[in-house]
Design goal:
Elements (H helix, E strand, L loop, with lengths): L1 H22 L2 E2 L2 H11 L17 H11 L18 E3 L5 E3 L1 H4 L1 H10 L3 E7 L16 E5 L8 E7 L2 E2 L5 E2 L2 E4 L4 E5 L13 E6 L3 E2 L1
Antiparallel strand pairs: 1-12, 2-3, 4-11, 5-6, 5-11, 6-9, 7-8, 9-10
């Protein structure tokens, strides 16, 4: 009976420890996320699978950069639905992933579950137009080409293109995959034939996540 009680206590302690670890606050390293994006914007990281020929690699690339910035994976079944976020390789070298790791719409829901907030939203921004992103380094930009409510593409804010009037960096340059972009002006309107119908949203990643 005592052994059973001890076993129950040990199991309960492990459950509590696991829950505490999963909910511990983690600082988001924006510079590391941007450095990763700058490193692999064109030469894809061989440590991860590519989806460039499987519907597009943009969200997979952003997820890798977010992970490099310290955002922890959230595997199932501990997390479910869009709250799960992971790309894992088994001992047999087979990859498994959550939809939120590779799909823009699901990644948006995941980031919002972390506390990401919308800091800019524009419709029909023309090529050459300068509009404020209100972004910080490491934030994520979403693009809905036909404004149907389903986002089609995303990028990550990597660099500053100028200074704001107060002297703070103006984080308006992004990196992206499929098509590959390095320090492109954040609206991507200059490359986008559908700019007149495109909805763009910036999600600000909190400084700490849990």
């Amino acid at each position: 009976m005592r052994r059973t009680s001890r076993l129950v206590l040990v199991v309960l302690a492990l459950v509590v420890l696991s829950a505490a670890t999963a909910s511990a606050a983690v600082a988001y390293d924006r510079a590391s996320a941007a450095t990763y994006a700058d490193t692999y914007w064109q030469s894809y990281n061989p440590a991860w699978p590519s989806f460039a020929k499987k519907g597009g690699d943009c969200t997979n690339f952003v997820s890798q950069a977010l992970y490099a910035g310290g955002i922890a994976m959230r595997p199932s079944p501990l997390y479910a639905g869009d709250a799960a976020w992971y790309m894992l390789q088994s001992k047999g070298r087979r990859w498994s992933n959550s939809l939120s790791w590779i799909n823009v719409q699901s990644q948006r829901a995941f980031l919002q579950s972390l506390g990401a907030t919308e800091v800019a939203s524009y419709y029909g921004v023309a090529p050459g137009a300068l509009v404020a992103s209100n972004a910080a380094q490491g934030d994520v930009v979403l693009y809905d080409w036909d404004s149907d409510g389903v986002y089609d593409h995303d990028s990550i804010v990597a660099a500053s293109d100028d200074l704001n009037p107060g002297g703070t960096p103006n984080w308006d340059l992004v990196d992206a995959h499929t098509n590959n972009r390095y320090h492109a002006y954040w609206t991507l309107a200059q490359y986008n034939g559908s700019w007149a119908t495109t909805q763009i949203v910036v999600l600000h990643i909190p400084d700490t996540t849990s």
